[in-house]
Amino acid sequence: MRLAIFSDVHGNLPAIERMLTDAGAVDGYICLGDTVNYGPWSNECADLVASLPNVVSLRGNHEEYFLQGRYFGNHSIAREFFSVCYETFDRLDAISNLPSTYTLNGFVFSHTIKDQYIFADTPISLECNYVIGHSHRQFKISQPPFILYNPGSVGQNRQYINVINYLVADIDDMTFDLRSVLYDERVVIREMLRRHYPDTCISYYAKRPRL
User: Fold this and answer.
1) CB contact burial 27-65 (16+ within 10 A = b; e otherwise)
2) Relative to the CA of 121, which of 96, 103, 115, 199 has its CA 20 to 30 Å away?
3) Superfamily designation of domain 2-206
4) pLDDT by residue (tens digit) across 144-185?
C-alpha cells in the first residue's frame, strides 16, 4: 500500500494540486497538519484535504491558532498573515476534531515532537520512529534502531519558495521516498495582491529564494 505523506500546505491551493498530480495514484494520504494560514486559499485547502480518499489528517499549530481565534507566536509577519487569513476562514468544523498523532506500522505521525522546530542537525534522541512536519525542511534523521522523516512543506518551502516537498511511503515494507517538484509561486503572489494582503506579507513570498 502506497501513501502520499505531506505537511504545511498553508493555504497554497496550486501547490497541493501540483503535489497530488505529481504523486499520482496512491492508496491513501497522511496530512501532518498546518493546512491553513499564510496562503490565500485556507478554505479551499481544508476542503481538498478533507475530500482525499483514505486520508488521515492531523492537527498542526496553525489549526490550533484558528480554533483558538488568535496567533500565539511572536513573529510580526506571521501575525499579519493570521489576521488576513483568519478573517475569511469559515471551515472550523473541518479542523475542529483533528487528532494530533497517528500510529501505523511502528511509526508515529505528528506535526512535530513536543512543539519543537526540528531540523536535520537538531540534537534529539529518538524514542521511536517518527514522521513529522512543522519546520518546512525535508530531511531524514537516522538513529538506529529508530528513524525520523520530515517530508518538508508543500505550500511554503523555507529554502526555495517555488519547491514543493512531500514523500511517498510503501507501507508494506515501510520504505520512504522523499520527493520534490517545482511549481509557479507567482500564482500565489498574484492572488495575494488581488486579495489586498499587506505589503509585508507579499514581500515575504516575493523575496524568498527560488530554485
Assistant:
1) ebbbbbbbbbbbbbbbbbbbebbbebeeebbbbbbbbbb
2) 103
3) Metallo-dependent phosphatases (3.60.21.10)
4) 999 999 999 999 999 999 999 999 999 888 899 999 999 999
Task: Please give the single-letter amino acid code of residue 45.
Answer: C
Question: Which of the 8 DSSP states describes residue 18?
Answer: H
Element (H, E) at 101: strand 101-104
Full-model pTM: 0.97
d(CA 125, CA 130): 12
φ/ψ bin of 9: left (φ > 0), alpha (ψ from -120 to 50), beta (otherwise): alpha
Q: Determine the angle formed by the axes of helices 42-51 and 76-88, rounding to 10 degrees.
A: 70
